[in-house]
Amino acid sequence: xxxxxxxxxxxxxxxxxxxxxxxxxxxxxxxxxxxxxxxxxxxxxxxxxxxxxxxxxxxxxxxxxxxxxxxxxxxxxxxxxxxxxxxxxxxxxxxxxxxxxxxxxxxxxxxxxxxxxxxxxxxxxxxxxxxxxxxxxxxxxxxxxxxxxxxxxxxxxxxxxxxxxxxxxxxxxxxxxxxxxxxxxxxxxxxxxxxxxxxxxxxxxxxxxxxxxxxxxxxxxxxxxxxxxxxxxxxxxxxxxxxxxxxxxxxxxxxxxxxxxxxxxxxxxxxxxxxxxxxxxxxxxxxxxxxxxxxxxxxxxxxxxxxxxxxxxxxxxxxxxxxxxxxxxxxxxxxxxxxxxxxxxxxxxxxxxxxxxxxxxxxxxxxxxxxxxxxxxxxxxxxxxxxxxxxxxxxxxxxxxxxxxxxxxxxxxxxxxxxxxxxxx
Length: 425
Prior knowledge:
Layout: H1 3-11, H2 18-30, H3 35-48, H4 52-63, E1 79-83, H5 91-100, E2 106-110, H6 120-124, H7 136-146, E3 148-152, H8 159-169, H9 177-191, E4 195-202, H10 211-227, E5 231-238, E6 246-247, H11 249-259, H12 266-282, H13 289-297, H14 300-311, H15 316-319, E7 327-332, E8 337-341, H16 344-354, E9 370-373, E10 380-381, E11 386-392, H17 398-406, E12 409-411, E13 420-424
Parallel strand pairs: 1-4, 2-3, 4-5
Antiparallel strand pairs: 5-13, 6-9, 7-11, 8-10, 8-12, 9-11
């Protein structure tokens, strides 16, 4: 077979066979198919799509390019969670220790930023000393010992996906359902958890822009999970505004700590507790939201998070360190009313320009920069009241401040934002 023939076949809208997909993915993982050809293939998929059978074959072909993690040595039903990404998405930092605080083991492999903001690993690496790379034995032992580990994807696990994941980020081929579904589920299947919660974000700040697209992606991933015997549930959630208050790696860690100290906004705390209830239920543990909220605010989740950070080499003093960004610019409201819109993508791109996200895969992140919003959609605001803080390494120009302010929409009528939109199982 030749890669160029398969690229042409998909470019022309034809269906690839299982054998063709297996050959292409294994050859890419082996290095005989170069990045430029795989980029062309990804773009062909972006425009031509894939059938469910092709997506299934792609997923399992990627699983076979690496090791499978065997979590059978860990007692209980192992749970995992994945988000399709968004702006200010620090959910894993809070949700994983919250679920683990109930004695349900969470063995999670996370990724770096895909697009405009940092990923879970980038956030954790803002803590001095935190190790995202553990051996499989270290990973399993840590979950046995403390019930929780969040690590990076090993080069030995789904090698083809790790290569393609970084490539898609810089070739404008991220937001296509077959590539998202196969990427997410190949990792989840190889990672070995018994049950999986999928947070499928939808809206301007997500890869899926419409609820219909998000539903299709969710249904595809749930089907892939159930096919290999993993209890899988997808939750479609709104990402039309940044999640929580902070956007930026260090700033999101600090917000996560505030939430686990009972000082977070009620909306994000309730949202995370709802996700935790689903994850616990997948593991056979039924808890009312009130009990879950208590674990979130009484220090139970925080203690588990600190245990994980310490176990993976993180410095607990540095964990609580404020951002070291040199300049903090406050933004104030020019009129009274209600916040009606905080377009997530616009603010993500703004934060990326400050250094909080990557434009290309080789970019180095500035962990300290980003945004913190005092007000969110639906909140009342008075003229002269602070709306947000911008953390940067250099003083902002007037054009930058104007750009930021124009994206904060204030109206006389209150608009209540959505949270969880739909559950698919």
